[in-house]
Amino acid sequence: MTNYLIRRFFQMIIVVLLSTMAIYIILNIAPGGPLAGMRSIGDRRNRPSEADMARLEAYLGIDKPLFMRYLTWLIGDDWLGADWVYIGLGQYRYPKLSASGDQLVLRDPSTGEATPQWNKARFWVDPGPALLNPGYTLWVWGEKTGDRQFAADQIQVKPSAGAARPEDLIAFGKVLKVVGQDITIEDVGGIQSTVTVDEGTTYTFPKGEGLPKPEQGLWLKISALTGSAGLLKSYSGFHGDANGILRLDFGWSWKLAVGQPVTALIRSRLANTLILMTTATVISLVIAIPIGIYSGVHQYSTVDYAVTTFAFFGSAMPVFWFGLMLILLFSYMFKEWGLPYMPTGGTVLVREAQAGSLEALLNVSKGSFVDRFMHIVLPAAMLSLLYMAGWSRYLRSSMLGVLRQDYVRTARAKGLIERVVITKHALRNALIPIITIVVLQIPGLFGGAILTETVFAYPGIGRLYFEALGQSDWPVVMAILFITAILVVVSTLLGDVLYTVVDPRIRFK
Amino acid sequence: MAVAELDRESLAKVKEESFARIVWSRFRRHKLAVISTVMIIIITLACVFAPLIAPYDPTESLKDENGAILKNAPPSAEHLMGTDAIGRDVFSRLLYAGRISLMIAFIVTLFAETAGAIIGAISGFFGGRVDEIIQRTIEFMLTLPLLPLLLAFSALLRGIEIGFLPPEWSSAVIIIVILIVFGWMQSARLMRGMVLSLRNQEFTEAARAMGLGPFGIILKHMIPNAMAPIIVSATLSLGGVIILESALSFLGFGIQPPVPSWGNMLAEYQVDMWTQPAKVFYPGLAIFIVNLSFNYMGDALRDALDPRLKR
């Protein structure tokens, strides 16, 4: 068994890796994407220029080829030498912010003076100088450090095609590629040179490119910002090197909560989903198992018909329709009729309970246990009905099969009372299909129920996933799917182990 | 010689008939299932012959005598279930929608459950390397998310046309394929779980001792004995697929309007459910009745086909 588990563990890793790869590809080939629609913004003043788009793409990392993006997501990009950050200080709204002035505030947050307005600043990160896209023509001032090697003090992106070249240039040419601090340029004769930049290098961009002027931003080494104080990481809006999901860096949200770590988003929803899903799962198991056993033992009795119909009731309707009907009845109609009505959605009261509602009647205080409970009743009831149907069916079916087997007859013949025969001999062997189905529910405990959460405006993981998907907030989507994938492989393993527990004849080698 | 052959043939024929009769007589014992079967047959026929039965074109906006579009008309003799917000006859739409919804449900269930059962049986019976490869594939498939995939295909979904099918059914084909590809894993897991338990039982030993090959054992002994959960899974899936399609429509990935399906009618009409709850009630009711009937039928069918039941 130990050998088997070890082998399964390695197989699990492979399956999760392959599935994240496939999911990443699916997300990226889907039309849309995080920048969809930005090029077609109606108002020209709000429409980003091509240079802005390029910068945004570099910021989000989607300018890189697909496999590099996946690798960055998986293992991070610090191994690429991406230790430079560009800070453009809100070049449109805050043109007067002086870069050097702000830098001081930024370096020392512990003194408490003037909290840096980091939400107003823009941060761009790229392996190497983010703005120097291939194809730009550069004028370089500085020192010659070797054969076709230059250390740049000043870099100017050539203002226009007709501009005269200054005399004191040391190098010029088109950008071929940017790796770390090294920029490879190629001059008109096809000769390639390497230009090395450092903190002191200043940049000038032509007007109208939509790029920040040098005085509006500056280059800093990330280490200066993230050092012992962990300065920038504590403020939203910044992401440094990606460490990759293997080092538990889930990245930061692109759209739903820009700049916030994905883990914070998930954490804010996780408890809600766990409460809802666990409640629903436990309730439906507690009801489905007796129903299944009873229907199996007393096949075609009136009670069998009755409980079967009850079990089918929830699953026979689309969840969102059933949910809306529940809201219509218990919240909307009850209010009309003057009965104490239920809350329509959410997890707790937002305002004080309104007169006439059930909460007001019971005098529930905001955020209390009873308050949470009242909000969970309808969604949990709906989900329980939904799961119950299937589970009780599987159990009824396998009970019927098992009850006719010889060993059950033998047990009865031995004179065991019926209850012992059913619970000890029959039920145990009827559990295999139930195990198969119920373990597949485990990933759902984390993943939530998209439709239920949507209908009841319940802030859980399911809705987070759907919202993130709708807005192409891929880091959030990927994080949720990654955790779900792990839960899927773990739960199938759990299922296999449980098979061997209920039926010792099953062996895995 | 000729006489003997004739005998054998007629004998086999008699046996087959009697098996069907046994199944039917067992099936009949589930009273609700018989009623359900009648319901399903009526609904299916009504939907199949929708062009003959439906009083109006399901996509046409009807006009009243003044030439104005007949919006949200109440139920009447001409419009059994009224008309919707752009003047289409709800009853006609419901019938046409049933064709697509039922077709998707039948095809997806048939293919997904059959494939799942066979794959699961092979996986469980052979075990070892075969089992590992199949199970890891299943896990891989289980981790793939349905919604992004549909998103990726949604552009295709709107534009695709398959030659020999009516254009409005072409997008259904994509949904069918995706639902089959994503639908076989559960029945495969169920079948494997059963087979893992069955293959160590005495009758399997006996079959092997009598010289039956592995595929013979799978077909003759494993699959029939493990059928019960598969039938349950299939009946849940028949209704489940209709509901899944409606959920996809609710989220915007289902059959694309104006082609009606019960799911997208529900999604379309739930917008005015506070003002006109009746309209959203009809497609919901159709799904509910069909689903309930499938479930009862599944229960009865499972009991009727149980090989352990002697009489």
Provide the descriptors you would attach to this structure in a database record.
heterodimer; A: 509 residues; alpha+beta; 5-stranded mixed barrel; 3-stranded antiparallel β-sheet; elongated; B: 311 residues; mainly alpha; 73% helix
What's the arrangement of secondary structure elements?
The complex is a heterodimer of chains A (509) and B (311).
Chain A: H1 2-29, H2 50-60, H3 66-75, E1 84-88, H4 99-107, E2 122-125, E3 137-146, E4 149-157, E5 171-179, E6 182-186, E7 192-196, E8 202-204, E9 217-221, H5 222-226, H6 262-297, H7 302-315, H8 319-337, H9 358-362, H10 369-403, H11 406-413, H12 418-439, H13 442-447, H14 450-455, H15 461-470, H16 474-502
Parallel strand pairs in A: 4-7, 4-8
Antiparallel strand pairs in A: 1-2, 1-9, 3-4, 3-5, 5-6, 6-7
Helix pairs in contact in A: 1-16, 6-7, 6-10, 6-16, 7-10, 8-10, 10-12, 11-12, 12-16, 15-16
Chain B: H1 2-28, H2 31-48, H3 50-53, H4 90-126, H5 128-143, H6 146-159, H7 167-181, H8 185-198, H9 202-209, H10 214-225, H11 227-251, H12 262-269, H13 277-304
Enumerate how many helices of chain A there are, as a single number: 16
Q: Write down the overall mean pLDDT of chain B.
A: 81
Question: Largest beta sheet of chain A: what is the strand line-up?
Answer: 3-4-7-6-5
Please mark out the parts of chain A with pLDDT under 50 across 5 or more consecutive residues, or reply none: 81-128, 208-239
General form of chain B: elongated
Q: How helix-rich are the residues of chain B, as a percent range? A: over 70%
Q: How is the main sheet of chain B built? A: none
Roughly how many Å is the radius of gyration of chain B? 24 Å
Poorly predicted regions of chain B? none
Count of helix runs of chain B: 13
Largest sheet of chain A: 5 strands, mixed, barrel
Can you characterise this structure?
The complex is a heterodimer of chains A (509) and B (311). With 509 residues, chain A is an alpha+beta fold. Chain A contains 16 helices and 9 strands. Chain A has helices spanning 2-29, 50-60, 66-75, 99-107, 222-226, 262-297, 302-315, 319-337, 358-362, 369-403, 406-413, 418-439, 442-447, 450-455, 461-470, 474-502; strands spanning 84-88, 122-125, 137-146, 149-157, 171-179, 182-186, 192-196, 202-204, 217-221. In chain A, strands 3-4-7-6-5 form a 5-stranded mixed barrel. In chain A, strands 2-1-9 form a 3-stranded antiparallel sheet. In chain A, helix 6 (262-297) crosses helix 10 (369-403) and helix 8 (319-337) crosses helix 10 (369-403). The N and C termini of chain A lie close together (6 Å). By secondary structure, chain B is an all-alpha fold. Chain B is 73% helix and 0% strand. Chain B has helices spanning 2-28, 31-48, 50-53, 90-126, 128-143, 146-159, 167-181, 185-198, 202-209, 214-225, 227-251, 262-269, 277-304. In chain B, helix 1 (2-28) packs across helix 13 and helix 4 (90-126) packs across helix 11 (227-251). The two termini of chain B are 34 Å apart. The model of chain B has no long low-confidence stretch (mean pLDDT 81). The chains are: A alpha+beta (509), B mainly alpha (311). The interface between A and B is large, with 68 and 66 residues.
